[in-house]
Amino acid sequence: MGDSALRLYFFDNGLVVTGPGGYRAAYDWETASVLQSITTVNGSAVADVRCTLFDRSGAAVGIGRGLDMVLPRQREELGIRSLVKGAPFTFEGDWGPYIQQMITGAQMTRVLERLAQGETVRFGAVALSGAGVSVKARSAAWTDLTRIGPSNGHLTFPDAHRRGQALPPVPVSHVANLHLFCDICRRMGCA
Questions:
Q1: Are 106 and 62 in contact (CB under 8 A)?
Q2: CA distances from 109 to 3, 120, 184 (A)
Q3: Which of 3, 25, 38, 147 has its CA 20 to 30 A from that of 16?
Q4: Which residues contact 106 (CB under 8 A, 6 or more apart)?
Q5: What radius of gyration, in Å, describes the C-alpha atoms of the chain?
Q6: CA distance 133 to 144
Q7: CA atoms of 120 and 126, how far apart (whole Å)
Q8: What is the value of pTM for the model shown?
């Protein structure tokens, strides 16, 4: 198989990734997760992006030109049992946001229902509940947070009542389904 076998096939319900050595995997938007690592030059120009797609079975594939930034401890926390180095696809500015958008559209309603039922929903290193946000052993109520979002490669949690952060910052590459996470925070009034 040559480079012509390295493809992303997008469908209404998910995508298929083909890669080196005949690799082929399918991901359903309703159950897939994605971690995104962006490398910049001079703090603003995007040099490369690496997306790691994984599903509930723990099968993951890293795609894009960047380096795999998923650490062993992070793999364990996310339930990733295998990680294949996929193709160095270009045009990350097109397919990266599209993957995030499709996962967000497919999972938003279910995640909001789970939160309304009192469940806690994990997004990698961060967890959401109807009461607020948790990072490691620390938590903050929704009313104590404002403008949650990415800044300089980290997800930040500004305190609504004073200057500073209510929770420690988390690298965006450690937040699964970052766009879904940020959209839920907006719906909770924290963006």
A1: no
A2: 38, 15, 10
A3: 38
A4: 13, 28, 29, 30
A5: 17
A6: 10
A7: 10
A8: 0.90
Give the pairing of strands 82-85 and 59-64.
parallel
> 154-156 and 170-171 as β-strands: parallel, antiparallel, unpaired?
antiparallel
> Position of tokens 């364990």?
76
CA-closest candidate to residue 148, choices 130, 121, 128, 124: 128
pLDDT at 12 over 60: yes
Residue type, 111: V
50-64 pLDDT per residue, tens: 899 999 999 999 998
Residue with tokens 């294949």: 84
pLDDT above 50 for 1: no
Give the separation between CA 39 and CA 151, rounded to whole angstroms. Answer: 13
Q: What is the pLDDT of residues 127-169, one digit of tens each?
A: 999 999 999 999 999 999 999 999 888 899 999 998 799 999 9
Locus of tokens 């109520």? 141
